[in-house]
């Protein structure tokens, strides 16, 4: 039988990285929730791997059911050379799964940590943003349970992002890599697609344009999605740098 002490230990600091004194805006979670998340890091990593698999299926990689083409959905409408830049949320959940998994195994990596922070912050907020901005269109073609699942599961990614400061120093080299990756994503998704048309996640009102070799991008949709994405990349950068600065200041005081 699980005792009260066992339950309390899930929320205690014992054996976990000592939390730094950080501004509320880079460490907004209550201590007990941070501790709980870190205690379950291995489980959360596995859940995110399942989410990654589902995400690739959502974008059109369909090994199951066998009656479906292997490549369908958005993947089928995108040039294969650009596929790495299409499934943004599944890539973000992969980043956090690897970051938490490596820490749980005692082999943390600052590059994975910071990439995970950027991905979970950006996609964890961008997806609910567009789900609300284009709610009528989404609900016209998406069952309400799936709509709610997408909304709240992405918000949970934001919570995960704020576990990382407990074991990451957010070094400049890792922040630079994350800025480069997510900045490139924004360029390809909204401004200069290089091949075909912009590659962001499909939104209501888009259709396939065989002549252009990609999907249509009505300005009233594209502009809103782009504004959200770029804003979140910038704010992720500012939060990462603020976290690094605060942790460095604490180190100097020690």
From TrEMBL:
The membrane spanning regions, by residue number, are: 40-61, 81-105, 112-134, 146-165, 172-192, 221-243
Does the record's keyword annotation contain Transmembrane? yes
- Superkingdom of the source species: Archaea
**UniProt keyword terms in alphabetical order:** Membrane, Transmembrane, Transmembrane helix
* Keyword Membrane in record: yes
Q: Tell me the protein's name.
A: DUF1405 domain-containing protein
Species of the source = Halorarum halophilum
């Amino acid at each position: 039988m699980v005792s009260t002490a066992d339950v309390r230990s899930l929320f205690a600091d014992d054996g976990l990285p000592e939390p730094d004194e950080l501004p509320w805006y880079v460490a907004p979670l209550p201590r007990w929730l941070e501790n709980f998340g870190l205690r379950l890091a291995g489980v959360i990593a596995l859940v995110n791997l399942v989410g990654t698999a589902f995400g690739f299926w959502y974008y059109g990689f369909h090994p199951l059911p066998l009656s479906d083409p292997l490549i369908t959905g958005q993947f089928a409408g995108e040039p294969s050379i650009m596929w790495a830049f299409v499934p943004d949320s599944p890539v973000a959940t992969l980043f956090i799964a690897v970051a938490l998994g490596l820490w749980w195994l005692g082999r943390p990596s600052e590059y994975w940590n910071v990439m995970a922070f950027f991905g979970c912050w950006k996609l964890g907020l961008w997806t609910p943003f567009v789900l609300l901005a284009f709610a009528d269109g989404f609900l016209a073609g998406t069952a309400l349970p799936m709509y709610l699942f997408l909304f709240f599961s992405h918000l949970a990614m934001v919570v995960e992002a704020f576990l990382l400061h407990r074991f990451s120093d957010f070094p400049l080299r890792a922040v630079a890599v994350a800025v480069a990756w997510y900045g490139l994503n924004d360029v390809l998704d909204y401004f200069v697609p290089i091949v075909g048309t912009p590659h962001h996640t499909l939104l209501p009102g888009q259709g396939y344009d065989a002549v252009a070799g990609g999907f249509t991008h009505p300005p009233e949709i594209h502009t809103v999605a782009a504004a959200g994405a770029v804003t979140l990349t910038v704010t992720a950068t500012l939060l990462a740098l603020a976290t690094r600065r605060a942790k460095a200041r604490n180190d100097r005081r020690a």
